[in-house]
Amino acid sequence: LWMTASMGLCLGAEAATLRVPSQHPTIRQAVSAAANDDTVLVADGTYHEWWIGSSMPGKNVKVTSENGPTRTVIDGNGVDILFLLNTNWTGKTFEINGFTIRNGDCETGVAPGGGAIHSRSGADIRIWNNIFESNRSAYDGGAIWLEGGNAFIANNVFTGNGCYRSGWTGGAVYLRSVEACGVANNTFFGNTTVSG
């Protein structure tokens, strides 16, 4: 009995895969339910969501599609920001991989930029193999606004994103006080700003 108990104490919980929509109906609910180092695996389809990650405790979590961005869409319908990390994620990694991410809109003043992704949480953000289209912001960063932490942005397509008020910059991406950044193999076209 002692050996069994000791082994139980030594073994940590294994990382789990949380499936959307078969186990959790929305991506936001799956991210909320995820424990540290879990993966949220999203089946083909279009998901009308916003504020994914908002007001949640920081944790290492991967949000990935099963079959890539042409078959898995997150569409904000122009309502609000799609991914919003606004609590303390310092030292934690948040990964977004393999989606078309479109029609996010940062206009309400909840966050100062990034129609699709906004993080001011200190998280290490990994954003790759996505298509960002038709996201917009009244502030900096039509698609993405990141502050603090580390950023890795690779193999994405940015098209038709923009800032639509005068004096703001970064039609596709805006980075502020990021500690370390890797940007590689992204394609940008048709992104606009009124200024900058």
What does this structure look like?
With 196 residues, the chain is mainly beta. The protein has a 7-stranded parallel beta sheet with strand order 1-2-4-7-11-15-19, with helices on one face. Strand 1, helix 2 and strand 2 form a beta-alpha-beta unit. The longest helix has 9 residues. It is globular and about 50 Å long. The N and C termini lie far apart (68 Å).
Residue ranges: pLDDT <50 for 5 or more in a row?
1-11
Q: Over all CA atoms, what is the radius of gyration?
A: 17 Å
- Which structural class should the secondary elements be placed in? mainly beta
Count of alpha/pi helices: 2
Percent strand: 35-45%
From the N-terminal CA to the C-terminal CA, the straight-line distance is 68 Å
Query: Helical proportion?
Result: under 10%
Described by strand count, sense and barrel closure, the largest sheet is: 7 strands, parallel
Shape: globular
Topology as a string of helices (H) and strands (E): HEHEEEEEEEEEEEEEEEEEEE
Strand arrangement within the widest β-sheet reads 1-2-4-7-11-15-19
Q: Report the average pLDDT across residues.
A: 89
User: How many DSSP-defined strands?
Assistant: 20
